[in-house]
TrEMBL record:
Keywords: Fatty acid biosynthesis, Fatty acid metabolism, Lipid biosynthesis, Lipid metabolism, NADP, Oxidoreductase. This is 3-oxoacyl-[acyl-carrier-protein] reductase. It catalyses: a (3R)-hydroxyacyl-[ACP] + NADP(+) = a 3-oxoacyl-[ACP] + NADPH + H(+). Gene3D superfamilies: NAD(P)-binding Rossmann-like Domain. Belongs to the short-chain dehydrogenases/reductases (SDR) family. GO terms for molecular function: 3-oxoacyl-[acyl-carrier-protein] reductase (NADPH) activity. Catalyzes the NADPH-dependent reduction of beta-ketoacyl-ACP substrates to beta-hydroxyacyl-ACP products, the first reductive step in the elongation cycle of fatty acid biosynthesis. PROSITE patterns: ADH_SHORT. It comes from Streptantibioticus ferralitis. Its EC number is 1.1.1.100.
Length: 239
């Protein structure tokens, strides 16, 4: 069955892998992109690309209108768009903190709230939020990012309770370190230190995150809600 799937931040990295995985499985996929143009092969896969900055409620509304127009109401939402702005606490400005929270947490609130409208009407839906292992472990220099990612867990679990009776599941995927632009920005020293803590001894590929997102969005996961699924090579074990 072909569903209307929306992936935020789907022009690169993990979001792009998620969009490709759904499209290859035959779903009607839309992605949002902000600055970078999506790769050309996405349109060959039939993926609809909609420009949207999730910090702007009007752009979110516009994006939904376009997606609903072309693919119908969103049945699967993957809230993936996110940013980092790392800094040690005493050097972290108010803007460093609030801008990361505004994208990662409040931006997710904006897109989820809009998707929930159609899902409530349809009495079914799948929502998957992309958090991070550091939301639970913490990370020096990433207090803003970790707080925003931890916030997604409380947000998802509240919605799991609120929306469960309407057959809408809300789950969180918490990736460890994934080979994308976000982690390519790290120094070799930082990368080596991180890998030392990963039992599987390697970074994840974006496709490995996509596989768990697809599972949570499938019929096989119909009885899973409010869960936080680590896809982190064992880095976050025990949390
Ligand atoms: P990238 O930096 O490669 O991509 C981030 C995506 O989010 C881009 O598409 C970007 O758009 C989009 N985005 C950022 N800000 C906004 C905004 N305000 N409005 C709309 N879109 C926005 O990151 P990854 O693919 O690595 O990460 C994807 C998600 O996974 C993020 O939420 C991240 O926190 C999380 N994650 C990543 C990990 C990793 O190791 N890479 C580990 C754990 C979690 P644009 O191209 O325009 O900038």
């Amino acid at each position: 069955m072909s569903r209307s799937v929306l992936v935020t931040g789907g022009n690169r990295g993990i979001g792009l892998a998620i969009a490709r995985a759904f499209a290859e499985a035959g779903d009607k996929v839309a992605i949002t992109y902000r600055s970078g143009e999506p790769p050309a092969d996405l349109s060959e896969l039939g993926v609809l690309a909609v420009r949207c900055d999730i910090t702007d409620p009007e752009q979110v509304e516009q994006a939904y209108k376009e997606v609903e127009d072309k693919h119908g109401a969103v049945e699967v939402l993957v809230a993936n768009a996110g940013v980092t702005r790392d800094q040690l606490l005493l050097r972290m400005s108010e803007e460093d903190f609030t801008s990361v929270v505004d994208t990662n947490l409040t931006g997710t609130f904006r897109v989820v709230k809009r998707a929930a409208r159609g899902m409530l009407r349809a009495r079914k839906g799948r929502i998957v939020l992309i958090s991070s292992v550091v939301g639970l472990l913490g990370s020096a220099g990433q207090a803003n990012y970790a707080a925003s990612k931890a916030g997604l867990v409380g947000f998802a679990r509240s919605l799991a309770r609120e929306l469960g009776s309407r057959n809408i599941t809300v789950n969180v995927v918490a990736p460890g370190f994934v080979d994308t632009d976000m982690t390519r920005a790290l120094t070799d020293e930082q990368r080596a230190a991180i890998l030392g803590g990963v039992p599987l001894g390697r970074y994840a590929q974006p496709e490995e995150i996509a596989a768990s997102v697809r599972f949570l969005s499938s019929e096989d996961a119909a009885y899973i809600t409010g869960a936080v699924i680590p896809v982190d090579g064992g880095l976050g074990m025990g949390h």
